Amino acid sequence: MQKRLKILVVRFSSIGDIVLTTPIVRMLKKQLNSEVHFLTKQVNGDLVKNNPYIDTVTIFKDSISEVIDKLKNENYDYVIDLHNNIRTRILKFQLGIKSRSFPKINLLKFLMTQFKRNYLPKIHIVDRYLETIKFLGIKNDMQGLDFFLSTDDKVQLSVYPKKFIAFVIGGQHSTKILPINKIVSICNKINNDVILIGGPNDSLRGKEIEKKCNSVISTCGDFTVMQSAFLIKNSQYVITHDTGMMHIASAFGKKIFSVWGNTIPEFGMYPYMAHEDSRIIEVKGLNCRPCSKIGFSKCPKGHFKCMEEINENLFLSK
């Protein structure tokens, strides 16, 4: 009888990157019937704790040293490193077992942001993740992303409009976020009930937008990531920046209007297997874009054309 493989999948952060690993753990579980463990930071543990394709979630707060002895005792057959940084290299060295690592394209992103030389592979990051496990005979099952909620993640929907659009107004960096006046204009133009989604850092912006709009309710800072995901799941469709919530919306099969500022979809992080009516909204032809693979606190050029010149009519749903 063939031995059942025991595999550790590693991805520390962030929200979107972890959601994008879900096809990998599903395929490892279903196609190999392997025992799948997942290692991530404590702050991101909730994102995978409900995943039925993961047998064990191991979390750490500050350092891998907190869990290294536990991991050594698991006697894994393989480590699938989907993060590939210094800490994961140390981890693989300490475990001393077979491993495969996700190949990053930081140099190609550098050439694109600094010199506008586009040598980027025309492939989504999920398919690049898949390359990491192909040696095991894994094939893409074409089932897209997964995201699993529990009963604890439910929000009382009766206090909100029966039908609403979810607008994710946050982002990790300011240059990935639409200005307040632009969001207000879009909300008023689409003429539908809108629920704003965001974290505590978006709370003040959310309240300001709510005051300036007719049919907008801000929930920014009110709910956990998982509860916000519940709202996204129950929305008609989603407007979002290039954020982790964009990938959660994709996992739920939502129509997505994804807005791109200083980053570009060509980096391979656009909504994976998105709803057929989804739209990518961006200002093309700017010679300063992309200016960063991640983002800045403010536009380096001072004009912020990549967001200020977004065509608001593109948000009008069919």
Residues in helix, %: 25-40%
| Count of individual helical segments | 11
Name the shape in a single word: globular
What's the CATH first level of the largest domain?
Alpha Beta
| Nearest-integer average pLDDT | 96
Tell me the fraction of residues in β-strands, as a range.
Answer: 15-25%
Task: Using the coordinates shown, work out and report the CATH topology of the largest domain.
Answer: Rossmann fold
Strand runs, count: 11
Spell out the helices and strands N to C: EHHEEHEHEHHEHEHEHEHEEH
Radius of gyration, taken over Cα atoms and rounded to an integer in Å: 20 Å
Show unreliable segments: none
- Domain unit count: 2
Q: What class would the helix/strand composition place it in?
A: alpha/beta
